[in-house]
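Input record (one chain):
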Amino acid sequence: MLNSKLKKKQAYFSISAVAKMFSVHQQTIRLYEKEGLITPKRSDGNTRMFSEEDVDKLEEIINLTHQLGINLAGVEMILKLQKKIKRMQKDMNKIFTTAQSELIEETDVRKSIIQTQTNQLIKIKKTVDIQSSDHHNNDDDQTDFVRTSPKNYKNNKSDTDANQKNKFNDWDVDYEE
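The corresponding structure, as predicted from the sequence alone:
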């Protein structure tokens, strides 16, 4: 609560103090006010009270008029343009923030879609791997089946018989003795 009271209390300067700060006549400051370049607050007694913002703005006006030689109409235009630029910067910042938020949201959605698709592809790959593994096992079974199928059994049997005969032909055994 103490901080909020301190924030509300702001330093205000009288016209004489401000005139001394910038080494200008009080009438010059009154002229700037009359032209609408500055608008200090007024006390209950109608005394001008210049805030720190008013002092900063007055400093800019004095620099433009005294150092750069710009007339009051030019100063007024410069101040209006500065105000417009600040407003445009705020608008651009809002647009940028909105666009950034939308982009982040869109990126998150796309990441989610990609993750879902990746998971689907992993499932498909696992299914294909399982089917491929089963297919290879079936190929071995089918090869065995082809080797022992009835169609080839006759050929295989005669080949087997011939091989066994060749094995036994090497034995010279005389059974008649």
